[in-house]
C-alpha cells in the first residue's frame, strides 16, 4: 500500500521532541548566514545571489537527469535580474525555462501558489510537450498513470505508483488550499519539507 492510498494520508504528524531541536539549529545557522550577508556589501550580495540561484538551477536539473551549462544559467539569471558585468552566453530554451521558474518561485514567493502558476511553470519547463522522448500533458494535470520504475526492459521494478489521474485535481486543490493558508503555528522550514513531500507524492 502506498502512502496516498491510506485514509486521511495528508494529516501529517511529527515528533516535536526530535524536530524542534533540529529546527532550532537550522534557524541558528540561518541567522548566522543572514548576519554575514548583511555585512558583505551590495556587489558581493548580488554575486552571492547569482551564484546561489545558478547552483540551484543546475543541481535541480541534475536530479531530473538534465545537465545544464552553468555559464548559460548564470548568464540568463544575471540578464533577467539586471546584474551587469557578468559575461554573456547565448542561452537555450530549456535554460530560459528553468530560470523563469526559479526566479518566479524565489522572487515572488509571497504570491499565492495557484493552479495557473503551476501550469505556467510546467509549460516553461516542457515547452515542446516532451519529457525526453516521451510526449506528456503540459500545463494541465496528467491524464494517465505515473510510476517510478528502474531496471532493464522486461526486468523493471516499480518503486512507486502515483495516485490515479482522476484524483489529481481534488488532491491538488487540497494541497494548494493548505499551502496558501496562513499558518503561524507551523515553522516555515517544516512547512517547506511537508510541502515537498506532499507535492512529490
How many DSSP H or I helices?
A: 7
Secondary-structure class: mainly alpha
Inertia-based shape: globular
Widest sheet: strand order? 1-2
Radius of gyration: 20 Å
Q: Helical proportion? A: 55-70%
Distance between the termini: 13 Å
Low-confidence stretches: none
Average pLDDT works out at 92
Structure commentary:
The chain has 201 residues and is mainly alpha-helical. It has two domains: 15-139, no CATH class; 141-201, no CATH class. The chain contains seven helices and four strands. The protein has helices at residues 16-38, 42-63, 70-81, 93-107, 115-125, 165-180, 188-200; strands at 130-131, 134-135, 147-150, 157-161. The strands form two sheets. It has a two-stranded antiparallel sheet. It has a two-stranded antiparallel sheet with strand order 3-4. β3 (147-150) and β4 form a beta hairpin. α2 crosses α4 and α4 (93-107) runs antiparallel to α5 (115-125). It is globular, with a radius of gyration of 20 Å. The two termini are 13 Å apart. 8% of the residues are buried. The mean pLDDT is 92.
Secondary structure elements and pairings:
Layout: H1 16-38, H2 42-63, H3 70-81, H4 93-107, H5 115-125, E1 130-131, E2 134-135, E3 147-150, E4 157-161, H6 165-180, H7 188-200
Antiparallel strand pairs: 1-2, 3-4
Helix pairs in contact: 2-3, 2-4, 3-4, 4-5
Amino acid at each position: 500500500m502506498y502512502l496516498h492510498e491510506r485514509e486521511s494520508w495528508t494529516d501529517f504528524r511529527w515528533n516535536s521532541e526530535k524536530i524542534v531541536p533540529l529546527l532550532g539549529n537550522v534557524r541558528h545557522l540561518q541567522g548566522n548566514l543572514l548576519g554575514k550577508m548583511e555585512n558583505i556589501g551590495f556587489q558581493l550580495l548580488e554575486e552571492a545571489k547569482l551564484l546561489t540561484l545558478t547552483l540551484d538551477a543546475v543541481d535541480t536539473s541534475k536530479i531530473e537527469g538534465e545537465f545544464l551549462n552553468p555559464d548559460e544559467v548564470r548568464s540568463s539569471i544575471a540578464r533577467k535580474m539586471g546584474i551587469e558585468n557578468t559575461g554573456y552566453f547565448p542561452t537555450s530554451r530549456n535554460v530560459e525555462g528553468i530560470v523563469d521558474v526559479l526566479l518566479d518561485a524565489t522572487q515572488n514567493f509571497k504570491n499565492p501558489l495557484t493552479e495557473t502558476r503551476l501550469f505556467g511553470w510546467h509549460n516553461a519547463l516542457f515547452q515542446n510537450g516532451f519529457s525526453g522522448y516521451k510526449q506528456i500533458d503540459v500545463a494541465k494535470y496528467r491524464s494517465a498513470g505515473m510510476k517510478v520504475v528502474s531496471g532493464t526492459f522486461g526486468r523493471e521494478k516499480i518503486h512507486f505508483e502515483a495516485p490515479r489521474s482522476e484524483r489529481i485535481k481534488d488532491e491538488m486543490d487540497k494541497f494548494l488550499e493548505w499551502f496558501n493558508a496562513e499558518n503561524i503555528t507551523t515553522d516555515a522550514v517544516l512547512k517547506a519539507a511537508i510541502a515537498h513531500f506532499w507535492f512529490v507524492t
